Amino acid sequence: MAQKLVCNIIRESIMKTFKSIREASKMPKGDHVFAKKVGKVNVMVHQDKKGFTTYIDGDKLDTYRSQKEAEKMGVAFAKEM
């Protein structure tokens, strides 16, 4: 029993779960300029060197030249999901 408890403690401290890895990278690089929740889907727009990048639930969708276009496409894609 004690050995099982020790194994569980070691496993939790050493092993990274998929959920913990995914949560660690939730906020992408760049300036956060827009955020909206469409249904159950999070839409974020960040500004970086190349333009405005749209993220859907933390996954990169695409990079656009203008913020308005990035917001519009992100919301449209989220509605389709």
Briefly say what this structure is:
By secondary structure, this protein is α+β, with helices and mostly antiparallel strands. The protein has 3 helices and 4 strands. It has one domain (2-80).
Question: What can you see in these coordinates?
Answer:
This protein has helices at residues 2-14, 18-24, 67-80; strands at 31-38, 41-47, 52-56, 59-64. The mean pLDDT is 82. The chain contains three helices and four strands; from the N terminus they run ααββββα. The N and C termini lie far apart (47 Å). The protein has a four-stranded antiparallel β-sheet, with helices on one face. The longest helix is centred in the C-terminal third of the chain and has 14 residues, at 67-80. It has one domain (2-80). It is elongated and about 60 Å long.
Mean pLDDT: 82
Structurally, the number of domains stands at: 1
Major sheet = 4 strands, antiparallel
Radius of gyration: 18 Å
N-to-C series of helices and strands: HHEEEEH
Shape: elongated
Helix-strand category: alpha+beta
- pLDDT < 50 stretches: none
Number of helices: 3
Number of strands: 4
Proportion of residues in β-strands: 25-35%
Task: Compute the separation of the termini in Å.
Answer: 47 Å
Q: What is the share of helical residues? A: 40-55%
The order of strands across the largest sheet is 1-2-3-4
List the helices and strands and how they pair.
Layout: H1 2-14, H2 18-24, E1 31-38, E2 41-47, E3 52-56, E4 59-64, H3 67-80
Antiparallel strand pairs: 1-2, 2-3, 3-4
